[in-house]
Task: structure prediction
Amino acid sequence: VTEYVVRRLLASAVVVWGVVTLTFFLVRVLPGDPAVLSLGVSADAEAVAKLRHAMGLDNPLVVQYGIFLRDAVRGDFGESVYMSQPSATLFLVKLPATLELAVTALVLSVAIALPLGMYAAIRVNTTRDALVGLFTLTAQSMPNFWVGIMLILVFSQTLQLLPTFGRGTWQQTVLPAVAVALPMVALVARLVRTGMLDNLQEDYVRTARAKGLPERAVVNRHIVKNMLIPVVTVVGLQFGSLLAGAVIVEIVFSWPGVGQLTVDAILRRDYPVVAAAVFFISLSFVLVNLAVDIAYAYLDPRIRYG
Amino acid sequence: MRTGRCAPVLQVLSLLFALSLLGPGLAGAAPSGTLTVAMARAIETLDPPLSLSIGNWSISMTMFDSLVTVGPDGSLQPMLATRWEVLDPLTWRFTLRRGVRFHDGRSFTSASVKASLDRIIDPATKARQIGYWQSYDRTETPDDYTAIIKTKAPVGNVLSALAVTMMVPPKPSRPLTEKPIGTGPFRFVEWVVDDHLTVEANPDYWQGPPKVAKIVFRSIKEQTTRFSALLAGQVDLIDQILPEQLDRARSASGVAVLQQPTSFIRQLWLSGGRPPFNDNRVRQAVKHAIDTKTIVDSIMQGSAETVDGCLGAKVLGYAKQTPYAYDPGKARALLAEAGFKDGFATELKFGAELYPKQKEIAETIAAQLGEVGIKVKVTPQDQALWVQELLALKWDMEIVGAGSPAGDGDDPLRRLWHSNNKRLTWSSPQLDKLLLDQQAEVDRAKRLRTFADICKLLYTEGPVVYLLNDMEIYGLRDRVTGFVAYPDQLIRLYSVGVK
Result:
């Protein structure tokens, strides 16, 4: 397993390098001069030229890339054009807030989706099953940011039960976490329902029932464990979209994570911040995927690494 | 030797102002309560000249003071400088206020003026405000309370630039980006990036302590969230209420709405150096064909006003003009006269997300021009692409917005319209000369006359239709007292209190 992990880590490093390099050139190919965007439409050409020089943008692209790589391996992605702080620091300081939101949403969605999906499977083809189906379909079709705004309008502006924005108390976490979790709840609940239904037809379930095990034990001890493998895969793969969802929802709730920072950086062509954001986000992606692969071994001893 | 004409009057006024402040100060009204402000704009930095954002400037102004400041009517008033004189067109002498201390206890002297200006033009500072000081030469400090600012060329807007240039201590012990030290009414407490920035009352402020003990600034970009936070009472003051939120805001209990015309003017630019807009008759036809009143009334719903100048009404250099009457018949006649009896096809580009209602405005313009035979393709763009094509002159028509952040007509007029800056395909030697004249004119009255000539020329010949003057709309909880809105959109909180 150690050898496998080392090999995967090396491959991950290549992936991260590839993504960062691709982004480096992509953002520079996009129209929009960071110096002009920074100084505004009314800036003098001379001031723009000075700023371009200070930002190193007057060098050939290859030279810029060389300098970028040299600094990046030391963890230095350059200073943000707008915030005058190292972009890696800016990003990392805010990352915990985003992770907190994403992980809370993850826990929340699994905690809701597991029982919900199992309930629907046990009550298959009843009105209640159909209601769960309607809910999951609706939840999956609603965009995060819209859900966020609706939650604010209902629970904050009208009912005044929960705060509109910010981070720090559990009350402030509820609405954004729900907004991020909702599509995930829908996805996982559907998956659990299907998994349950498939497993209910399996021979081992019939055997377990024939042994005289109570239905509760059949479900909890046998079915759940078998059903979890595809769920873990999807949850792991979906962690990326959960992060992406968090980034959008953060902006709605003014949650002090990496969302606003990243979106602003892209819109304003703040290259150093884009680079830092892409690096750390892709790094967390490959690490989560690795963790998911390792988790398989514990859930299903048949899976071996080779 | 010439003396700033309004300096004596302003001195008296400022003395009266200072005395009026002593009253409550002597009565011992200690600062109390916390004011929470949610702004649409981002908080970018703690070091004042590193930002060009009005939101950031508002925050800087709680902790820092400038030599001169702008009043609610747009006039320049003494602040850390008590009086000033123009010694010659390249030399300005400022007499500094005595007894002013920085938050770290050091005295404010001419060395601070020199340090504050020198660092802006030092490339190592990366000051985005550098545009205001392009002609700065040096500051001389004959004594602690006299600062002589020398420029390389005559500069007419020195005072306006000083109004947005915050005074910082020479050689601060820690970088200002980490620990801002100013002479302002509030002291820095903490900044949690993208969450909040807190300042507390400076009990030793030279004008007397402020009314509130603490201000918490938040940047809430999402309009619905900002507005909901105000309605739910989670914040006390917000900016940028949208036209469609106005009715809801007015009917909400415990909330007051304050509308203030700004210096921000949205205008339609025509590519006047290329056919068909190189013919002034075509340009005038467009001016007659657009009904700006309809745009202001039905799209902006009272969150904008029509324009009768080429600058905001409170900006130095404003000169009233007669707007073109909405007259499609005359527009058609002018087009026919110019050889476009059947009209022509053209394209209108604009930054879709830049300002409220851009798309609706563009579509209305297209419809109105369609009435007189000009077929307009409407092309919304994202900010980065928009700026790029605007500056590369890849456009026939553009919606451009420009304000006067320092309350002076030099920015935007010279920067946008002088042919050296290549912002348009159209240029006029006469306009170029007038623009340089006002820049170099240190006599205010002469400068104002030049501005009037510039504006008249833009109205009669310029490839520009002035569309509307945006209003800033603030929402306040009832507990907020003493808030005054300024045309420069800066939020000034020194005399604001909470109940």
In short: Confidence is low (pLDDT under 50) at residues 1-7, 19-27 of chain B. Chain B touches chain A through 53 residues (CB under 8 Å).
